């Protein structure tokens, strides 16, 4: 299992950015014990509805804040107070900022040294997304959100939980530049292709005949917002959908992944049949994506790619991805090197084929 240092990405072990850490419907059932970024974490929803993510362990005696469902304070429904959470062992109360603000058997100020780290979290598109930054900085871009998510003609996804995969996320990100796997792996060789790097965004525009979708022409615009969240607008025949693929580091060299499709119904009002069709469409997209997943599960790390001139721009993609492993100031400087549009030798571009750049996307 290769680690961040083996890819020479930069000084950080885990990338900076917004990541999916749970599905909203999971968190709605109650506090969760999760592990990401090499850390055990406590995730819960406050009474105001605010999702809160804290380092997991209480400073008093090391109890995991959200791993007990049998402690009486949990069973009695008294663990969450406002947006704060009480430790199930002795009831110290942590607020959403990670500071202890009440100890049931102690008068006077609570120890500042009891504070634990709190991470920015948002609800977006049925996902709980957290901001991670090894330097502890605030987000420098917004978590992705599609305006279509709340539109009544779009059928929302319920995520496929793909579980953990012992692969470094670099190998997942390589897919964005990888024009030459589209035929052998997905049965949809590209007829046009380009990548664009734009600060923290990396875009792929391509299209080709898709064997799995019955031999129709599939047009896609796919983009990463930061290192962990892929959205892809996909159009074929009269169909249009957005696919989500999320990867989040669990430990160095291990990711967790999720998948979903937001599907436009033919007309309003949306029927049960439309919902069933949307679920089938998501299953079809998962079948296509699962081929990548199976290859990743069994491949050796590509620490260096033996790149041909007619391969996609892997080096640019990797350089773009490395920004998330650099201190922020260096990442900003890297943009002047990576920002731009990249084509592949011998391959038509979207404009060669008359496909205008998709300017209506929230990229
Ligand atoms: S271990 Fe958390 S309150 Fe004692
Ligand atoms: Fe792929």
TrEMBL record:
One of its GO terms (biological process) is cholesterol metabolic process. It catalyses: cholesterol + NADH + O2 + H(+) = 7-dehydrocholesterol + NAD(+) + 2 H2O; cholesterol + NADPH + O2 + H(+) = 7-dehydrocholesterol + NADP(+) + 2 H2O. Keywords: 2Fe-2S, Iron, Iron-sulfur, Membrane, Metal-binding, Oxidoreductase, Transmembrane, Transmembrane helix. Its main location: membrane. The keyword Isomerase does not apply. Its EC number is 1.14.19.21. Its cofactor is Fe cation. One of its GO terms (cellular component) is membrane. The keyword Plastid does not apply. It is found in: Membrane. SUPFAM superfamilies: Bet v1-like (SSF55961), ISP domain (SSF50022). One of its GO terms (molecular function) is metal ion binding. Pathway: Hormone biosynthesis; Steroid hormone biosynthesis; dafachronic acid biosynthesis. It holds the Pfam family Rieske. Residues 18-130 form the Rieske domain. It comes from the Bacteria. Gene3D superfamilies: Naphthalene 1,2-dioxygenase Alpha Subunit, Chain A, domain 1, Rieske [2Fe-2S] iron-sulphur domain. Belongs to the cholesterol 7-desaturase family. This is cholesterol 7-desaturase.
